[in-house]
User: Which sequence fits this backbone?
């Protein structure tokens, strides 16, 4: 048996931090070395829940000599923490979006390349068995030639979990910054082609009283091979909706249509914790496979299946979307190298 | 005095309207450029046949225009000039100029004009709008509307696939949801549309989507498709508002599901639409009749028909140019 892969957590600001810690704690061949958080109470609470050491400084965590760190900070801190890890020679799995600005994301990619450390972007939908089935069907030619993708990644307003999600500085934006990258990445993965042009509209009618950012958004993408696609990234699931939200894709080709819903595998529960109807998910947890891939890439000393460049390319779509909202016209995607 | 209808066009929608008028006990005279088809259809419903527009107009109260889109204007205007009220199938016309001419002719002749945007009479769509109007979800913010089927088979002479005659998918199918989006979220100020048919006609795939921006700030995602396998006819709506969300998907909630071993029986049982005691076409035509007889408004006006067409034409233009088409208040006012 090889040595365990040592993983640390930089910040527990993100809602996924607790879930990731639980998965990593249960993963064979993984040792959780500790957790740092700039919010002492939040960090100590999370560390205690998972029975791991709390480190008071970033350097303290990196001094435990982890093989890799998972960054679950506010979005605007991703670059600083990634550069610290890279300088310490530690591999990084960074929560999406990779950064709040494309030049930050490009700097992260470059810093990790120069330091020869791995940089993986946390895109769990790459590991959804439901979307994998769609990908297999498409690659097998079931749709003929693909012409259009319609994607919906709507959800509740995430400030029910952490207020910074609706902070224009800490999060870098609202619903567009939060949700667009998931489908942008899945589309790039399904097509193997980059987005060329983006048109986007956004508004702030949902949650208008407690959001400083856009809460509704619709994007139209044109890929470089002529395929059209849309993304609905709105925080449009209200309190009381049976689940947090979801992600679904309708793929249209010359040979017909396939729809795939990554979160349709759920029970319908009445009178549970939410009192009303709720949808306990029973499908495979894509986060388990995603974290497993990060650990495997470290152990096998190879590139992870999802890279920092993937995170950058997805963020370039978000950047174009904000510019389109500003100008009211379709805009070209600008690459940051 | 008996209310009588002159039906122009014995195709798919003409048959649908004739069935509804007949169910309402309204006598109908049918005209079609194909006299055999007119006679065949009329025979099945016990209707009379006319052989010319003048004969069609004689002795009827209203002319129901169910011809291919490019012929709406000519027939509607002649009906108005003959002093007949007009019910016109959507889209009101192929061009705004034709639509304006129809409106002007009806106003000039002092007759009523109704545009048959039947989706407003589908109970799930009506109920969802009622939720919005009664404040059930607060202010509408993001709308998603979809209408998808296989490629239509019925249209004689393939006029429906001739862009110049019908306007294709955007004008014929998506206009339903453009009208509905405007009914729910108000006037539309910007339209962006991508159409596979317009962009890559060689693929012969009819699929398009449009993103609308409403004057209120609400945004709408509208999908129209003839790219599904037969016999699908799928409609869905989702309206997210500041205080809630209302959704419906015909695929998720079919009240009758068949698992029949014989394919012919399966086909016969798989009728489109939800089973209802009164079908939406019948509700629509009854409301138009009542509006004429009692001199009251129907839920869809001639102006609504013009505005739905304006959005659809903007979408078609956007699909061609790849740019956003803006619809100003001035444009709309000038057209009134």
Assistant:
């Amino acid at each position: 048996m090889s040595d365990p892969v040592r993983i640390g957590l930089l910040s527990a600001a993100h809602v996924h931090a607790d879930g990731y810690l639980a998965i990593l704690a249960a993963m064979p061949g993984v040792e959780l070395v500790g957790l740092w958080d700039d919010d002492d109470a939040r960090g100590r609470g999370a560390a205690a829940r998972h029975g791991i050491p709390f480190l008071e400084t970033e350097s303290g965590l990196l001094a435990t000599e982890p093989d890799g760190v998972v960054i679950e900070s506010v979005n605007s801190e991703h670059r600083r923490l990634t550069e610290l890890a890279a300088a310490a020679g530690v591999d990084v799995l960074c929560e999406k979006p990779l950064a709040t600005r494309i030049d930050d994301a490009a700097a992260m990619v470059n810093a990790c390349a120069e330091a020869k450390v791995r940089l993986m972007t946390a895109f769990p939908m790459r590991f959804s068995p439901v979307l994998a089935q769609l990908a297999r069907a498409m690659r097998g030619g079931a749709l003929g030639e693909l012409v259009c993708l319609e994607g919906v990644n709507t959800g509740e307003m995430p400030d029910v979990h952490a207020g910074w999600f609706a902070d224009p500085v800490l999060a870098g934006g609202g619903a567009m910054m939060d949700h667009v990258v998931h489908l942008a990445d899945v589309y790039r993965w399904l097509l193997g082609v980059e987005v060329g042009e983006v048109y986007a509209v956004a508004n702030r009618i949902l949650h208008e009283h407690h959001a400083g950012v856009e809460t509704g958004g619709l994007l139209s993408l044109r890929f470089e091979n002529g395929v059209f696609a849309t993304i609905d990234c709105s925080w449009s699931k209200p309190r009381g909706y049976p689940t947090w939200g979801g992600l679904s894709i309708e793929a249209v080709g010359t040979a017909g249509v396939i729809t795939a819903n990554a979160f349709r595998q759920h029970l319908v529960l009445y009178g549970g914790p939410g009192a009303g109807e709720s949808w306990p998910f029973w499908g495979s947890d894509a986060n388990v496979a995603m974290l497993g891939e990060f650990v495997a890439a470290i152990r096998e000393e190879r590139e992870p299946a999802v890279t920092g460049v993937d995170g950058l390319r997805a963020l370039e779509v978000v950047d174009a979307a904000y510019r389109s909202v500003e100008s009211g016209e379709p805009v070209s995607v600008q690459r940051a190298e | 005095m008996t209310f009588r209808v002159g039906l122009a066009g014995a195709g798919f929608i003409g048959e649908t309207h004739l069935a509804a008028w007949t169910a309402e006990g309204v006598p109908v005279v049918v005209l079609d450029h194909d006299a055999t088809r007119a006679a065949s259809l009329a025979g099945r419903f016990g209707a009379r046949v006319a052989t010319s527009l003048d004969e069609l107009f004689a002795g009827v109260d209203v002319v129901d225009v169910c011809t291919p889109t490019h012929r709406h204007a000519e027939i509607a205007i002649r009906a108005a000039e003959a002093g007949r009220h007009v019910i016109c199938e959507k889209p009101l016309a192929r061009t705004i100029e034709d639509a304006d001419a129809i409106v002007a002719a009806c106003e000039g002749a002092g007759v009523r004009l109704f545009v048959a945007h039947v989706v407003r009479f589908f109970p799930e769509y009506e109920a969802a709008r009622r939720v919005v109007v009664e404040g059930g979800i607060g202010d509408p913010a993001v709308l998603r509307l979809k209408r998808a089927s296989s490629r239509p088979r019925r249209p004689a002479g393939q006029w429906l696939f001739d862009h110049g005659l019908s306007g294709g998918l955007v004008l014929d199918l998506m206009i339903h949801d453009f009208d509905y989006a405007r009914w729910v979220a108000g006037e539309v100020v910007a339209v962006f549309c991508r159409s596979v048919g317009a962009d890559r006609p060689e693929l012969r795939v009819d699929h398009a989507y449009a993103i609308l921006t409403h004057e209120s700030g609400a945004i709408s995602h509208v999908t129209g498709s003839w790219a599904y396998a037969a016999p699908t006819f799928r409609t869905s709506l989702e309206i997210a508002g500041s205080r809630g969300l209302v959704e419906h998907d015909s695929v998720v909630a079919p009240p009758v599901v068949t698992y029949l071993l014989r394919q012919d029986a399966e086909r016969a049982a798989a009728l489109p639409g939800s089973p209802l005691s009164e079908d939406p076409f019948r509700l629509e035509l009854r409301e138009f009749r009542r509006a004429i007889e009692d001199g009251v408004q129907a839920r869809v006006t001639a102006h609504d028909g013009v505005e739905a067409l304006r959005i659809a034409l903007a979408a078609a233009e956007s699909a061609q140019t790849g740019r956003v088409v803006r619809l100003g208040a001035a444009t709309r006012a000038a057209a009134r």
Summary: The interface with chain B takes residues 145, 147-148, 150, 152, 154, 199, 201-203, 205-208, 215-218, 220, 222, 226, 228, 230, 232, 234, 236-238, 240-241, 252-254, 256-257, 328-330 of chain A (CB under 8 Å). Residues 308-327 of chain A form the longest helix (20 residues).
